[in-house]
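Protein details
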Amino acid sequence: MSFEFDHATRPTPLGNGVYDTPVEDRWDINGNANGGYLLALVGNAMRAESGRAHPVSISMHYLSPAPAGPATTTCEVVKAGRRLSTVVASMSRDGRDVVRSIGTFGDVDASIGAQSNTLVMPDMVAFEDCPTRPANPDMPPGLGSRLDMRLHPDDISFTTNEPAGIARVRGYFTFKDGRPVDTLSLLLAADAFPPVTFNLFGMKGWVPTIEFTVHVRGVPAPGPILCEFTSSLTQGGYWEEDGVMWDSAGNVVAMSRQLALSPLGAD
């Protein structure tokens, strides 16, 4: 079976580390490609160049907006070790870099080595009891039309202009077309939810990401991914967001952090 995400992130090798990586439509927020989608798109080309199975740690700096259209990604393996390979990459369009990325690829078997975990899963209602995020009739169909995301009932008051007062968003992530969540799509999940600052300052518009990092900590078990995103500091025109993602078996499968520009009115 063909899934939308696989089509939208499939790199076509052109030789010498260069891949055709067009930015597909409807993986965007109001016309600009979602940062997690770009991380997965470029990350898949990097993974192909590395010859490894999974992203382990990948970071991206966003240099300009990326609406749907043609793009190429140039990858270079800077180290190929016994367990891990490190790749640098840039996506470009019309001779201009859109993003730059560095990532490490290898195995993410969570059963290997010593085990320790002090992270606590959020108190969450069942998937089927969580509301979906309502579509914005003033915006064209985008990322939300591809995903089946359920938000905690306590974390959606920003949609009615009543921010909860806590910089937190909890919810479930999965695909509308039934695609299983794997290590590549965790990169998308880490940036698919509404910015947590909406629950502090309301929906103030675009909050552009400056830098985004995801650490993949395990291969997800089947089922929706439970996600929790929080922020501790909005200051100087910037804010950070930290994320933790659990699979249906209760295992931590990814952690993320991004730095973004503050939403309008948050200064």
